Amino acid sequence: MRYLAPKRASNAFNDAAKWLTAHGVSLLGSRVLAVRGRKSGEVRTTIVNVFEHEGERYLLAPRGHTQWVRNLRAAGEGELRLGRRSQHFVPVEIADPEKPALIRLYLRKWAWETGAFFDGLKADSPASDIEAAAPGFPVFRIVES
Prior knowledge:
Blueprint: H1 8-22, E1 30-36, E2 43-53, E3 56-60, H2 67-75, E4 78-82, E5 85-93, H3 100-114, H4 127-133, E6 139-144
């Protein structure tokens, strides 16, 4: 399973973005994801980018099968926060054949921020390259509950 661990410099950026989002300032769709830890049972938070496609909202994990992805799968529910507002949701994981359009859209919007995690993929990469990489990028549809 593909997983790129965060580095110290990216943690500083994530910490700043998380702080702003927690205080009600969304950076191009950022939200604080809160999900119960699969081992500890404690609520864990991280910054994520929420995006829309054909009237549905999605989360994509540019670092691969991260801790938040594993926790979300195990918990079967999560919460997206922006300032004092929160939205409870159920994640529906997207199958690999359905991911390429979502990955391409994500890259168009956030390649400036997360492009380094995509192993050379770009928004205009050939479809075959994006299809081959799809298993390494978990994607979830957000279903409000």
